[in-house]
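The data are passed on as follows:
___
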Amino acid sequence: MSEATLDGRGRLTLPKEVRERYGERYHIVQLHDGIKLIPIEDDPLDALRSEFADVEKSAEELRQDARDAVLDEAGR
């Protein structure tokens, strides 16, 4: 785990090894007990394409599967 502090202007500087691994742009998510930094890919669409490259179902099939799962969990 790394440590970072805010400067006098409220800026947070991440350690070099963190920036090299995750990049320089982040979404800041506020949680009830802290914050979370989520790296933003240089090209988010490319990141999504590579993440789901092995998915063989269409978007509609995935939606239908999700609907069916929710209905099954709710007891139809």
About this structure: Residues 69 and 76 are 10 Å apart (CA to CA). The chain has a mean pLDDT of 88. The beta strands are 26-31, 34-39.
